[in-house]
Every structure is written in structure tokens, then in C-alpha cells.
Amino acid sequence: MILLVSVVGFPAAASDGHDHGGGGAEVSVSPRVEARLDKFQVVLVYANRQQYVDRNFQFFGNQPITKFSEQRLAVFLENFLTGEPGTGATLEAVVNFLPEPLSEIAPGVYVSKNITLGGGRNEVELNYQIDGQEGMLPMTLVVPGGASSGAQSTSIVAPPVKFSDWLFILVVIFIYLGVTAVYLARRPIQQPKLHATQPTAVAVNSQS
After folding, report:
1. Domain, as residue range, for 137
2. Closest C-alpha among 149, 153, 142 to residue 71
3. CATH code at 78?
4. For residue range 155-165, what is the model confidence (pLDDT) as tens digits?
5. Is the pLDDT of residue 1 over 70?
6. Residue 167: inside a domain, yes or no?
7. Beta bridge partners of 44
8. pLDDT digits (tens, 9 = 90+) for 113-169
9. Assuming Cys at both sites, which of 36, 70, 110, 192 could form a disulfide with 75, CB separation 3.0 to 4.6 Å?
10. In the chain, how many domains are there?
11. In the predicted model, what is the mean pLDDT of residues 180-201?
12. Taking the mean position of all CA atoms in its chain, how far away is CA 135?
């Protein structure tokens, strides 16, 4: 059985161990991403107790562990072939160019210290040393809303406004006409120059 990491949240009105019906229990899943690292299955989880109402934090055969009092990064490492936890690894998560060492708190479970991720895409570089191998595994965590907020929030992305080609052409023509009108209004009006004409003398020959 592949690594089991689940964070389950129930409605606030329901108590533990009771089912009030009405379509089943609500599930609140923390942001996570999975990857394959040679013979190991890697699950990176952002456990934020302030944002996600988690009741049971289970791993490796549904064994619950104590909830984190602060938001942390957690890495669950399991041998893909045997299903055994990957122990004795040295892991470091680099978030926003800042290294965060991960400590093994249980077999195959590695957690960071208090860390806050912003809403949206968070690029995480996981540096590892395990079974004589070392390297870097790039991973991406997508966090909905703001991670520092105590209440759940949803990020809203406005769709891009689409303009038709004809509307764009009309706008360009309107701008061109406006600029031309301003230029013509400010251009000084040149008065036509009047040239004085000299009277020409006409010789009149009188014959007697």
C-alpha cells in the first residue's frame, strides 16, 4: 500500500465519532504534492492549522500523530517497492531562496519549523541525501488564498477582458482623430501677406 497521508476535517457542529447525516462529512485537505524519487514516494504537505480545520492527521497505516500547533512543511517518505518508511534521510526545503531544514520526527516523517506560504504557487526545492544518493527535487505547492490569515479564504482571479478586432480599430481611429483635432486647434493661423503694388507710369506721346 502506497504512502497514506490524509488530513480530514469535519463540520464544526459535528462531534467526534458521530454522523449527523446530510450527505457525509466535509473534508478539508491541506495543500500537497506527490513525486517519485527513484524507489521512494515523496509527499510534500503544507500543514497550516490556522487555515485548515484538521481533526485527524494520519500516515502509515492510519496512525494518528499530534497536530502541528504552527504551520509547517511536512515530507512523507516511503519506499515505493516495500511500503516501508524512508528513514535516516537528510532533507532541506528551499522556499523563496531560504533554506528550511527538515527534522525527522517519526519514521519517514520530516517537518520544518514554523513557515508561512503565500497564496498561489509556491516553488519548493527539496534537497535530499538518502541511501548514498543526493540531489534536488523541484516541487510546486498551490496554496488557496492567503496562508497567514486565520480564516479560510479563496483567491479570486478576474478573467481577462476580451476586445473584438473591430472595437480595437475604432478605439485607434478615435484616438487618432482626437490627437489630430488637438494639433489643428493649437496650430497658429498664418495670415496671408499683402504685397503693395507700385503704380506704373505710362508715357503718353502727344502729337501735334
Report:
1. 5-12+24-143
2. 149
3. 2.60.40
4. 333 344 455 66
5. no
6. no
7. 33, 75
8. 988 888 889 999 999 999 889 999 999 999 887 533 333 333 333 344 455 666 778
9. 110
10. 1
11. 67
12. 25
- Tell me how far CA of residue 30 lies from CA of 22, 54, 68, 147, 197, in angstroms: 24, 9, 12, 11, 97
pLDDT over threshold 60, residue 63: no
Give per-residue pLDDT as tens, 24-46.
444 456 889 999 998 999 999 99
> Which residue in 70, 10, 57 sits closest to 30, CA to CA?
57
The reply to whether 185 falls in a domain is: no
CA distances from 43 to 8, 72, 109, 172, 206 (A): 16, 14, 10, 53, 127
pTM above 0.90? no
Closest CA to 95 of 147, 153, 133, 59: 147
Secondary element (H or E) of residue 100: strand 98-106
Q: Look at residue 170 in the predicted model and tell me its pLDDT.
A: 79
Q: Is residue 108 part of a domain?
A: yes
Question: What cell was used for 41?
Answer: 514516494
Radius of gyration in angstroms for the set of CA atoms belonging to the chain, rounded to a whole number? 37
Residue 174 counted as domain residue: no
